[in-house]
Amino acid sequence: MDERQLRVDLAAAFRCFAKLGMHEAVANHFSAAVSPDGRKFLMNPKWVHFSRIRASDLLLLDADDGEELAGRKDIDATAWAIHGQIHRRAPHIRVAMHLHPVHATAIACLKDPEIKPIEQNTARYFNRLAFDNEFGGMADTAAEGARLVATLGDKSRLMMGNHGVMVTSSSIGEAFDDMYTLERACQILSIAYATGQPLKVLSPEVAEKTARDWEGIVDFSIAHFEEMKRVLDKEDAIDPGGRGTVPAPGPSSTRPPRGGDQRDPPAFA
Ligand SMILES: [Zn+2]
């Protein structure tokens, strides 16, 4: 996928999560690798609301750049610490999304942060989560980012204790659907816990089969994301405020003023 399409899709993912209420003020961050070796990647600029991020706003960074990048005023130091290390140390990860969605974060803050398999959404994560229990304040150093990558290990999702969650994937669509389902699974589990009644946990065999079934329908995840992009387009066609065009990425690109020329859909560009 070329850089332009990655920009459009990543911007769409930000806007989808804003609509779903899964963003955290102007914090949280996603990245998508652009180069074949995974070291050049796109990331959202510091403290721009997810609902306003456009394709042309995304920063093109190099994981080999040093810690001095953390001092750039358009880069969130925490985002650089985490995503810079992911793309430097784990080239197989093409997309990484970090959020603090309410329900997933609530489960991550329990003494037992496992997502018990009690139905289809929760079972997607059976034996498929890594857990970080070393929260020590906001991660803003390369060492902290490196530690998180090591903790993730061979898993693709990280429950970050006392903090939030991280989802990694090979495409933006898969990562989007995975994050969506992770939050929904934790919402279901939270409500089940809140009843105070004992959980009826699925057998390991059924949970494992369900998790594998999920892994066999990657096209479902892609379809979900593509449909959500169409929903965004439709909604923004009704209320097109704040849209702009998609300048070609690169050093020579110029950014039109927000709310300027609206000829060039999609809205999240
Ligand atoms: Zn965070």
TrEMBL record:
Gene Ontology annotations for the cellular component aspect, listed alphabetically: cytoskeleton
GO molecular function annotation: actin filament binding
Biased composition (Basic and acidic residues): 258-269
SMART domains associated with the record: Aldolase_II
Pfam families, A to Z: Aldolase_II
Gene3D superfamilies cross-referenced by the UniProt entry: Class II aldolase/adducin N-terminal domain
Stretches the record annotates as Disordered: 233-269
Superkingdom per UniProt: Bacteria
The Class II aldolase/adducin N-terminal domain, residue ranges: 8-190
Annotated family: Belongs to the aldolase class II family.
The protein, known as: Ribulose-5-phosphate 4-epimerase and related epimerase and aldolase
